[in-house]
Amino acid sequence: MKIPLHPLVIHFPIAFIYGALFFTGLQLIKPNWTCRIVGLWMLGLSSITSVLASITGQWEMKKARSSDYSSAIHEILDKHGFYGNMITWLTLLTFLVWLYLFFKYMDNKLFDKIIFIILIILTTMVTITGYYGGTLVWEHQVGI
Questions:
Q1: What are the residue ranges spanned by the domains of the chain?
Q2: Residue 54 CB burial class (10 angstroms; 0-12, 13-18, ≥19)
Q3: What is the distance between the alpha carbons of residues 34 and 41, in angstroms, rounded to a whole number?
Q4: Residue 3 contacts residue 61 (beta carbons within 8 Å)
Q5: Alpha-carbon distance 41 to 44, whole Å?
Q6: Could you give phi then psi for residue 75, rounded to 5 degrees?
Q7: What's the pLDDT score for residue 68?
Q8: Confidence of residue 99 (pLDDT cuts 50, 70, 90)
Q9: What is the pLDDT of residue 11?
């Protein structure tokens, strides 16, 4: 019996990206409560685990494509895959740019505000992707 890895792995990048948003926002509101770099490293963990989630998602998509689902399910599957891949690359790019700018301009707090806005966009995309994934699993029983 082959166990689908995507449902096991996907929760890690989601939690890390929401954690990055939370700790970056907390650091902006109350700078003395948390270290400024916590959100950065959570985004780094999210980028690593999102690559794993993307790879396992591609495996699951191949399995779903070989099944005879309706065209509506394939549309949702395409949207879920598109957003998932987009989040993976944007998370990785955001982490690398943030890491570079953090160490180059360590005293400039403007980057924290810009990154916070980017993290809001990323978490919104994660929420949309999770909605499509949940729809595939719970409404259409894809991957079960």
A1: 6-139
A2: buried
A3: 13
A4: no
A5: 5
A6: -65, -45
A7: 83
A8: very high
A9: 94
Q: Does the structure show a pLDDT above 70 at 1?
A: no
Asked if 111 contacts 102 with a C-beta cutoff of 8 angstroms, the reply is yes
Q: Tell me the pLDDT tens digit for each residue of 7-42.
A: 899 999 999 999 999 999 999 999 888 888 999 999
Residue by residue, DSSP assigns 28-55 as HH-TTTS-TTHHHHHHHHHHHHHHHHHH
**Alpha helices, DSSP H, located in the chain:** 6-9, 11-29, 38-66, 71-104, 110-134
- How far CA 88 is from CA of 38, 95, 97, 126, in Å, comes to 20, 11, 14, 10
CA angle 91-135-84, nearest 5°?
A: 15
